[in-house]
Automatic annotation (TrEMBL):
This protein's record includes keyword Membrane: yes
Keywords per UniProt: Membrane, Transmembrane, Transmembrane helix
Residues covered by the GtrA/DPMS transmembrane domain: 26-141
Cellular component GO terms held in the UniProt record: membrane
Subcellular location: Membrane
InterPro entries: GtrA_DPMS_TM (IPR007267)
Membrane topology: Multi-pass membrane protein
Domain of life of the organism encoding this protein: Bacteria
Keyword Nucleus: no
An individual GO BP term: polysaccharide biosynthetic process
Residues annotated as transmembrane: 24-46, 52-71, 92-113, 119-140
Name this protein carries in UniProt: GtrA-like protein
Amino acid sequence: MSIGDSLNAALPIRKGLRATLASLMRFAGVGGAAALGYVLVSSLAVVLCSGLPAPVVSTACYALFIVPTYLAHRRFSFRSDVAHGRALPRYAAVQALGLALAALFSALAYEVLALPNPAAAIAVVVLTSAISFILLKLWAFAAHR
């Protein structure tokens, strides 16, 4: 095999890696925008709805972002054309798993590893987001096989 043949064989791998990195960057952008929107909306709603418990208001605000974030991830992050009837329930399942993983990673980071608050929070976000990205890319938004 010549050097040219080796380089040509590597091109599909490079193209796939570039596509995955681009998808990861879009995923981070969509997730970051959704997180910022949630922080702003929930902060305002907690003040405006002072008669209700803050956790209830915050949870309701979080729920408001589920479908728009799903749609943004489907269209922009993963550029998927998988039917909503298949992708949305899978997206919801990944989000539910993400909550469970965040609780697990939080317990590990804070209680087992005794990380300081910022480091623990970053660890939870990075680990949970990485697993979510992989599951969304390979399962929830993956084309039929």
